[in-house]
Amino acid sequence: MYSRPKTLDGAVHVLAQDGGQILSGGTDFFPALGDRPAPDRVIDISGLTEIIGIRVEPDHIRIGGLTTWSQLIATPLPRCFDGLKSAAREIGGIQIQNRGTVAGNLCNASPAADGVPPLLALDAEVELVSGAGTRRVRLADFIVGNRKTVRRPDEILANVIVPRRLDDATSAFLKLGARRYLVISIAMVAAVVKMDEAGRVAETRVAVGSCSAAARRLTALEHALVGVPARTGLGEGVLPEHLAQLSPIDDVRATANYRSDAALTLVGRALEACVGSC
């Protein structure tokens, strides 16, 4: 059974009544099938215009779940979103960026999903809609493992909510792969740095992807940097123990030790990039 509801309420109703696999941009959906046939029930939500686009509201910025990465790149946003836009440009090629959606990237929950670390660094929440109502979940709590989330089978990720308290912060995203473009990362880092009036770090957020089953914030490092002068050399304060929350693995792209070393270097460089643009 294939259905293409026209409204979010209609999609939620079909999902509650019949269940099924949600299809949005399709850039993860179809490759994941391999040689297998499509599921018996597919709910194509790509036509739900009410959850496409970005709205700037007084306290937060609302990114519709079906917003594509190309749309996000083209939308004027506060400077703290520069890191997220840099990550968006790394998601496949232009064709993938034109079709792939923010919600799809998050719900696919790959450890190497480029969109996750910068959204973690922005303290993003996800808005999940079902027949039972709407609930918000911190992105840090939404992805719980390799391709595992807390989304229930009857829920649709309708929006990503980013609070606006970091609007004037600087941000950066760095990714290491076996080649420059169209590559799954060995390690990637997103950082956000907010200065106070004295030129010191007031707040910082650092998230690392591809070095654990799910991207993780480096909370010990974030606390250690508060009050430190926000100037060149900030990255030199990053120590191996600040990355203790990570659990890299050996795979075909890199060893765990290489990932750890790469992440340490990338974190320092991302922080330097942030203070360099302050």
Characteristic terms for this protein:
single chain; 278 residues; alpha+beta; Uridine Diphospho-n-acetylenolpyruvylglucosamine Reductase, domain 3; Enolase-like, domain 1; 2 domains; 5-stranded antiparallel sheet; 4-stranded antiparallel sheet; 24% strand
Rg computed from alpha carbons, rounded to a whole number of angstroms: 19 Å
Major sheet strand order: 4-5-10-6-7
Please write the string of helix (H) and strand (E) elements: EHEHEEEHHHHHEEHEEEEEEEHH
Q: What's the CATH topology name of the largest domain?
A: Uridine Diphospho-n-acetylenolpyruvylglucosamine Reductase, domain 3
Terminal CA distance reads 53 Å
Poorly predicted segments: none
Count of domains: 2
Q: What is the count of DSSP helices, taking H or I runs of 4+ residues? A: 10
- Which CATH class of the largest domain applies here? Alpha Beta
Number of strands: 14
Which overall shape is indicated by the principal axes computed on the Cα atoms? globular
The helix fraction, in percent, is: 25-40%
Percent of residues in beta strands: 15-25%
Largest sheet: 5 strands, antiparallel
**Would you identify the CATH architecture of the largest domain?**
2-Layer Sandwich
Give the rounded overall mean pLDDT: 95
Structural class: alpha+beta
